[in-house]
Fold:
Amino acid sequence: FVKKDTGLHYDRYLREVIDFLEKDQHFREKLHNTDMEDIKQGKLAKELDFVGHQVRTKLDELKRQEVNRLRTLIKAKQDAEGGHEMNHKVLLKQFEYMNHMNPHTFEVEDLDKLIQSATNDLENYDQKRHEEFKRYEMMKEHERKEHLKNLDEEHRKDEEQHYEELRKKHADHPKINHPGSQDQLKEVWKESDGLDPNDFDPKTFFKLHDTNGDSYIDEQELEALFTKELEKMYRPNLDEDDMTEMEEERLRMREHVMNEVDTNKDRLVSLEEFLMSTNKKEFLEPDSWETLEQAPAYTDEEMKLFEEQLAQEESNLNQKNSDLQKQKEELERQQEKLNAQKAELHLPLPPGHQQHLPASS
Structure:
């Protein structure tokens, strides 16, 4: 169910719970024999009632530790924000993967909430990643354009010419094989595995790249298969090659292959799914792969809206700074007025303020 770091803020808790549940033979069998749709519908969670006492006791302990961890994090965040109470909805969001009304014992509802939260969050992961990368690319372009504005005409032309040269250099690379295709896997078989492409065997390939020997190719193992393709396009320390874009390309490839091969949507590729995919037309006669430079991350309209948003944010920040400056000046005027009143009444002034007495004649 969970084979690698998910990136979720409760990843450690999720993995520890699953690890301990898999130590129970009854639950382990149910986990491996239940399809993803039934897991999402809560059928697996009900099997918690049949788990042994020792595992249940450990799950209770894990839950208490996780509740304490969350409470500590929330307290630290409140302290960092000056002691302000957190928004109630935000607070509940932090606890939505468990039944926080019962902080002591791990029950069926806890497992159900954990599974539901994890599956929903993981399904949304790629979409969030797309949005973050889009923002990265738009900010990169925005900063480039802002830099050009600060140059004189001659230097601006030189910079634009250099930018175009870098783009052409990056685009000048060998053909990129369609991820997950026969051509792409045969290249891995030859270059990484050191085997004759004419002897390519899908079953052997699967076993070679199931590096942890659990009978599945997980997302991490799948992403490792694209390294040779990525090395055709990206080299570290070259101005024209952006390593953030390289990682996005790797994740795009993984997402594409998972969509094609992972038929039960459990984020794992079984041997059966893999072998089935090798009989498809997409495997034998794939379309050409559209790389990042051929598939821009944003449209002109999205870039325009992004720059308008940045301008609005800058305007709001300037207005806030202006308001704060006015408040500061007003407080200083009030303090001066108060000091003058105290001087007239011969009252002591605040520390740091000196009373100027008339010189004696």
Summary: The beta strands are 216-217, 269-270.
